[in-house]
Amino acid sequence: MTAYDAILLAGFGGPEGQDDVIPFLRNVTRGRGIPEARLEEVAHHYRHFNGVSPINNQNRALKAALEAELAGRGINLPVIWGNRNWDPYLADVITDAHAAGHRRLIAIATSAYSSYSSCRQYREDFAQALAATGLEDEVHIDKVRQFFDHPGFVLPFIEGVTQGLTDVAAAVPGIDLATEVEVLFATHSIPSTDAARSGPAERGFGDGGAYAAQHRAVAEVVMAAATPSFVDAGTAVSWQLVYQSRSGPPTMPWLEPDINDAIADLPARGIRAVVIVPLGFVSDHMEVLWDLDNEAMETAGEHGLHAVRVPTPGTNPAYVTGLVDLVMERVNDVPDDERPALTELGPWYDVCRPGCCENVRLGFKPALAGIAP
Both 166 and 305 in a single domain? Predict the structure, then answer.
């Protein structure tokens, strides 16, 4: 059992005005040698929304929802919010937390899956923030387990797919949901080398590593729960795992298929409608608003497909409650066999395994909440 002083809500961060866009993108890509011309290409996604990423306001809303849930349950844990790539920066909020007397923080990263960018990089940034502030010996940061298959994260997607199929049936008269609809579970693509090293090597997840395996497992749970009322026994609604938001050079293999390529292939199979599920995302940030609501929807229209996009968890009550439950698992040292997990892969580890989620290009850097390296 651990007496934590506060909860650290750790976000990615995003620009909040036109002047912020390029400096923010430089922060995100620092050390990767990305040319300014490429940053300008990405910047137009943000400029389309007046230079404002929705992610900061979403984390403000999530912070408020967590505070309300904690207060309603009589849990006296303040919530502090810090970002990896934009204000409020992790180092600043950790400094403020230390000044307020907080010494043991339990972090919630706004990412549910195992990979370098979605888990280990957060842990490295925690270590870097403590080193930058000189607080390595005074502030301790743990992290809740990866929550990809926690009911609080999964239930909003079950609700979303159920409603999405309902909407398709109403919008496309006579459509056969068993043969003419495809459910596309979308997540951020990552380099294939990073994917292969996601999760503990000893688990043997294959080429896509734990990252792909976790997404597939959750998609199976969602489909099993959401679709039986729409199709006859012995049949199933078709689905696949697709990827989006690739940003690497063409010579570097990334996880595929891209969602737009997958959509383009569907009419040849007789598919008339798609339900797009942003399974890899906890909220409707830029990759959802641009890559799905803009580009993927446009691709679907070009191929004559009716398309609906289901919500991310956001501040869904089940998700907020689930995040607090994850914190309290650590506070109360709940045994593994009493921790909820909707797939056979979980419950995941409180402390990341040795060598978990290596970035092949950067190697291992100091990281908290795990076993070295």
Answer: yes
